[in-house]
Structure formats: structure tokens, C-alpha cells
Amino acid sequence: MLREGRVTANGLRFAYLEGGSGPLVVLLHGWPDTPHTWDHQLAALAGAGFRVAASWLRGYPPTEIPRSGYFDIGTLALDVRELIRVLGGGDPCLLVGQDWGASIGYQVLAAFPEVVRSAVVMAVPSRTILAAICWHCCSVRPGTSTVTATAIAGFFLCGTGIGGPAQPGGRSATGRHPERQDLRS
User: Which of 8, 95, 142, 145 registers the highest number of CB atoms within 10 A of its CB?
Assistant: First the structure.
């Protein structure tokens, strides 16, 4: 049986879904999703002997919207670290992140490895892997500038192309393909 709870972490009041008992599994949703993205996994993990929790991330009602307006990746990682500490009683958790939750998960792993026993991150490659892919692409296609490679990385990490939000067909709002723009001029 899943239940909704509330807890204060990193100075904010977070709402979350939880169920089961046993080692803590924390599930981080993507954008524009909610913890209900994990409904099937919440039930399955709870039934398999885990205590599972999925919060509404900072800025997603019913979690409190911060007055400070801070939504940077470092602040989100602090939120998750504090959620793990509060919900896990100080024990490291199993962390699962999907999409935007994966990006936050990478930051938690980098900054606060002591709060995570193991992790699964899905649908977003780490910045290190993406940088390596872009470096390889630049090596394969001579003449591609580092700035262009960085723009391509930003397109995949942030979901935006150069010149505005990505549109269907891989074009930015300007109608140009981000990988075809030469930013050297």
C-alpha cells in the first residue's frame, strides 16, 4: 500500500509517495513528470522488500516552491542528499533517476557519494560520457569547432538547440540544426 508523506529537507517541505519496508530506494522523476511516473516501480519495489520513496522535486507542487527561486543542479542535489538523510535515517540508499532525475542523480553521486549505496541513472548520459562522444564527433568531422561541440552537448543535456527550445525534427526555434551551426564567426 502506497502512502503520501511530508518531510522537511534542505529548508523546504517535500511531499512524497512511499511504501514497503527494508533498505531505502529513492526514485527521482524526470521533467515534466511527477512521482506517479514510478507507480508501477513503487509497488513492485515495496513488494520485493524495499522501502521506496519518490518525492515531488523542488518546485513541483505539492512540494513547497522555494521563495529563493534556486533550482540549480547543486541545490537540487542538496535537496536529494537531505531527503536521503531524513528518509533513510543516515543510511545510504539505492538511488534511481530518470531524465532530469538522472541529471540530479549524477550530481548527488559526484558531490555526496556517501549517501548512495548504488545507483541507476536512465535516459540522460553523464556529462563525462557526453563530452567524450562530442570529442569523438569532432575528431571524426574535422573543422567542427569546440564551441559547436559544446552547443551539441547542451542540446542533448538541456533539450534546447542553439537559438531557442528544440522543436520537432531536431531543429531549434530558429529553424537551424544545432550541429550545422558554425559559431566561430
Answer: 95
